[in-house]
Amino acid sequence: MTTSINTDPQDTVYDYIVCGGGTAGAVLAARLAEDENNSVLVIEAGQHNSLLENTIMVGGWSQNFDTEADWNITTEPSPGANGRQVKVSRGKFLGGSSGVNGTLCIRGTKQDYDDWNQPGWSGDEVFGYMKKAENFHDKKWFDADKEAHGYDGLLDIEPHDLVPISNMILESMQDQGLALQPDMFTSGNNPHGCGHAPRTHYKGDRTTSANYFRNKGPNLAIKTDTIVDKVFLEGEAENLKAVAVKIIEKDGSSKELKAKKEIIISGGAYCSPTILMRSGLGPKSELEKHGIDCKIDLPGVGQNLMDHLIVFIFYQTTKPNITNDHLLYKPDALGEAYRQWKEEKQGPLSTFPFGAFAYARLDERLKSEPLWKNAPRKEGCDPMGLKPNQPNIEFFSTECYGGPKQFDQYPDGEKTHAFSLIAELFSPKSRGSVTLKSADPKDNPVVDHNYLSDELDVLVLSEACKFANEIITMGKGTKDIVEGSWPKDLTHHTHTKREDWVPYVKDNATTCYHPGGTCKMGPADDPMAVLDHELRVRGVKGLRVADTSIMPLLNQGHTQMPAYAIGEKAADLIRGKFLKLASVDSANIKMHEASAITGREEVNGNGTVVLN
Ligand SMILES: Cc1cc2nc3c(=O)[nH]c(=O)nc-3n(C[C@H](O)[C@H](O)[C@H](O)COP(=O)(O)OP(=O)(O)OC[C@H]3O[C@@H](n4cnc5c(N)ncnc54)[C@H](O)[C@@H]3O)c2cc1C
To answer: Domain containing 369: what range?
Structure first.
């Protein structure tokens, strides 16, 4: 990576300090440093990513878990999920979770962002920023939506070459009513169909937000292995201003670093609220428990925690060489796969073994369910709050056996082979929280996802599993190759009723690693909104948050592309720039105008909204 970034910074004063060098944080810092008059410091709790091969070799993703490169957070027990605790890994290194994720680029629909109802964050605008981030490399076999992709961004993205089982599953999906629209997860305009998901890898290596640091100059400084404890605030009441951060270095010593212009917190949905709380910004009662002086009572900090739940449904096939198991689990196969990646940048470890994808609406399937029929709903929405142009669920398949560490019953890759179809729940009703374990910045937060606490979540996810099973066991492409469930002693392939799937969901639903919402943006009259629509912490000058914690609602997709968009947009907000869009939704412009005349805010000369 060509760079003259300062990785051993000694200065104590910078224009901008970005707390957390993860997905959104790295993007934001790199964009701010494009102006060489800005001095920018990124503080990252974990190591430099170049030291960690498993953040570069895509197939090494799970090897980061339970190591120093993982935050190693486990949830509180969720009563709705039979009291299970779930390991909710996050990347702890430069690049953050972009260096450990499943590489999928599934943007959601424009409606998802319109639903945020925040000036400057319409579907058109957020899709515009996702496009800005992207440098798409097409492949001959792929029928790309060329208009929807970006080609001069800093994040290399390409399609994934399928193995046979994935094409068979795509055939089954179509057979079961999900028409093929190859690039629908980039277009975001189809809530019911199947296609391919582009990936954050290129030429055999994972691409991450750390790629944004390429060609950056010495005005960008990166301090790794350093924890941000808190932000120091100066002034009283209306004039509270963020001026410095307290850091803890690797040797345990602490230091104060000053910011002349702004401090931006990008610690991710689990850690950003904890930095705010340690700084005295959060629910007063929560801060008092830990002896923290409350500067502003912000009850929404750490609340509104959301995630997408997924259920892996594995099947066994005896048909050889249609999955990737033989390339991974046969004796000596893994060694050869590693050699192939290291020397040729090819083979099963150079990409992520997810294969076929689909979105689905479940209106027809759920219409006679009493819970669904009788649930309250907003006009034009289903009980989950989704409009007809938004999917209720996603399906995605694995091209071999594997997943988080609870999936440890490996086939031998010779006589036995396995693959899965995963069902993912969108727009979950259940909400959780992030709170402090103590005021010690080295303590992980208490994460309570409260999974499946709402019966509607169980209903939709169990119907999704039923549909998934029909795709695999009845669909034309796969019905004749399925031997049964995997592991062999399970019988889920025989389930026919939705109710059969309820215990399976409660026992197996796990994280898709998409936490968000814990420092949400919102209007001034929402007491739970932590940020305004320019990501400024309410009541504090010079302090913003930029990562997936800002999302008022999750998108109907995966969360890395919105995280890139949030980093890009945050940089533009700070620099007072607007993205030029072919079409900017006029309602959104009206919202901008409306907020400009409330008296609380005004539009400055270059068009950005600034607080009085
Ligand atoms: C295993 C896994 C698989 C996933 N798969 C996909 C996928 O296929 N597709 C997809 O779209 N999304 C996926 N996601 C989700 C996606 O990667 C995340 O939503 C996104 O990367 C989050 O970006 P962020 O900037 O909010 O947080 P992060 O990228 O997690 O960044 C937060 C950063 O802040 C640092 N930090 C935190 N606290 C402190 C502190 N006190 N001091 C200093 N530094 C701190 C962290 O170490 C980290 O580097 C996955 C995530 C995981 C973990």
So the answer is: 161-196+309-427+452-508
